[in-house]
Amino acid sequence: MKIAGIGCRPGASVEALRDALLRVLMIAGPVEGVATIPARAAELRALSLPLILVEVAGIETPTQSPRIQALHGTGSVAEAAAIAACGKDAVIIAARVTSACGTATAAIAESPESP
């Protein structure tokens, strides 16, 4: 299973979300769906892709943002969401990338089994 995790600032545009997603897909190829935190569901529904809502607090991530750690309890919403959606054996295969405008991030995790 391969899932893209997406993080974004409130009100991020569809273009920013697509940009971050396309950048990470160029690194790791197609995914089965996208994951994010419940607070960002409205922004991601605009992508019209299968959406998985997850909790990310306490999930260790390869990249760290002090701002995101303070807000969400993890270093990267995108990486943590991808890991959470793939399950406990998931690994990040494409670390967090940022959209050109800086309002959205995406990462991809992969797991050999479904959660």
TrEMBL record:
<dbReference type="GO" id="GO:0009236">
    <property type="term" value="P:cobalamin biosynthetic process"/>
</dbReference>
<dbReference type="InterPro" id="IPR002750">
    <property type="entry name" value="CobE/GbiG_C"/>
</dbReference>
<feature type="domain" description="CobE/GbiG C-terminal">
    <location>
        <begin position="3"/>
        <end position="109"/>
    </location>
</feature>
<dbReference type="InterPro" id="IPR036518">
    <property type="entry name" value="CobE/GbiG_C_sf"/>
</dbReference>
<dbReference type="GO" id="GO:0016787">
    <property type="term" value="F:hydrolase activity"/>
</dbReference>
<keyword id="KW-0378">Hydrolase</keyword>
<protein>
    <submittedName>
        <fullName>Cobalt-precorrin 5A hydrolase</fullName>
    </submittedName>
</protein>
<dbReference type="Pfam" id="PF01890">
    <property type="entry name" value="CbiG_C"/>
</dbReference>
